[in-house]
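Model the whole thing, not chain by chain.
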Amino acid sequence: MRVEQGLSRTWPRSRWIRFASLCVLAMLACASVHAATDPLPSWNEGATKQKIETFVKAVTTSGSPGFVEPAQRIAVFDNDGTLWAEQPAYFEFFFALDQIKALSPKHPEWKTTEPFKSALAGDMKGLAASGEKGVLELVAASHSGMTTDEFARSVNQWASTARHPKTQRVYTEMVYQPMLELLHYLRDNGFKTYIVSGGGQDFMRAWVPAVYGIPPEQIVGSQGELKYELQNGNPVLIKLPKVALIDDGPGKPVGIQRALGVKPIFAFGNSDGDQQMLEWTASGDGTRFAGLVHHTDAAREWSYDRQSKIGKLDKALDEATAKGWAVVDMKNDWKVIYPAEKN
Amino acid sequence: MRVEQGLSRTWPRSRWIRFASLCVLAMLACASVHAATDPLPSWNEGATKQKIETFVKAVTTSGSPGFVEPAQRIAVFDNDGTLWAEQPAYFEFFFALDQIKALSPKHPEWKTTEPFKSALAGDMKGLAASGEKGVLELVAASHSGMTTDEFARSVNQWASTARHPKTQRVYTEMVYQPMLELLHYLRDNGFKTYIVSGGGQDFMRAWVPAVYGIPPEQIVGSQGELKYELQNGNPVLIKLPKVALIDDGPGKPVGIQRALGVKPIFAFGNSDGDQQMLEWTASGDGTRFAGLVHHTDAAREWSYDRQSKIGKLDKALDEATAKGWAVVDMKNDWKVIYPAEKN
């Protein structure tokens, strides 16, 4: 005799109703406890979330073969397209344009010289015509010729007021809620979280600490040369228009070595510019995690990969498939994109 | 009536003897408790020790005007001449010579080419004749052409076996016991301790963590260019014979900005190469500490300053006097120099 048959014969209907109600309550309670303790509530259940949780459990379970000492729990994240959006252009480029406008009163010659003329006129076609060389000129002019303190103040001013041309959100509201949760989850499990980005190191250090909870010394990015000097007896560092490190592609393992001196065990990126960082991270001994954000959500964010001008994801996607790296399918893996959508 | 008169009249001699013995015991106990709790036992009492303790008390006393949040308690130390000895030549130069010998079988041409010929023959006069250019050539040849992992293994092998020509000690035993105590004292008070040295960053990272308790990511030094490549599918970083940063003099605030992005509140150096780091550190708001080790102890270590070829201390000593920075008088401020002398 099966148990339910025994019960169904002896219990009156009223007791069944009471029992069913209790079951429902228990399930609701159970679900709410799960939600309260789920460290990644904005991630849908699925292979990607599973991979992350399995990895974290392995490295934090003392005595398990995958265990990693807390001092070695180093996680690195790309920024543009991995922690915040990057379309229709890197947000730092929008900053550069706004900065050129802010600096233009001191540079009357910009009114008649490209690419500054187009930048000041908001003429994107003219800008496009100046090509990569023009873009680099704008970035150099907007990121040098002032002290590191003055630059940080400009970035902070911009980050708290400028708005994205499509979403009209302040840029720092276009960070990815699921990735914020991932950063917290890793730190709660003894990880040190770093940013390793092609973006400007000084640009990120101005706003990243407050937005991601990552301190300045854990933010690695592209770097310009600096010059130490005394201004009226007061020491300053002047930002020069000369590149010291392009922290992108093969430059990312270089940036990691210079800043950290150890190989991370966890890396997340989203483009071919992250391929070498992921390879480098995945190549060490012991338990390792390499992950990519795949932008598949044209409705809520953007959808792009192999042919994209910004955030091109082609070779790294092939390598991820070949090596079994985690690949976030943004459309299906993420319940929400931005923090404001959370409730 | 004074108390001791009253006691002397009523107490028998035997009781006085017992009382005196108890006093002595109490004093001994008190002294031993003091020794046990003194965080800087190898420092003689005096102005320098007092300055350090006063500073640490100020920044750690919650509610005091000098209080500094733990996240801002960043301390930077020069290495050569500040944390370990540097005479008769930087110890990294002795490593370079030994490394040239180790690499020589792969470079038969070195037998007949200067400065390698003199280096291999141990001919210091010949080496001196090759001048600064020769020294740089030796450093470049000994610090490049291998992966970062291979280089770290070479340094570790050397650090555990090579001995100083005068003291015959292993080099890592020539660290300064009072400075080890200072590092611990600061960390016990919530400081993050960094090295910011003209020495090679990769050279220091190989042995510093075990000797000073400072992790690789908190070791900033001079850096060479690196090249990422795949060797049989295995990613490596090759050390190139090209300088990326000379972390000395005005390069020290640059190295600090690149690695940390914040101004330290505490800095210790020993030479003119540390002057800008001390200025930079001392120039911020709030409570600040700048200190110099002055090598005044010809008997136990070395005595040198304004005229020295290695570790020249001239302008920085004048600035220290003018600005009231702490200056360690090694002979009088330190009870012992090296850890082996402790007991």
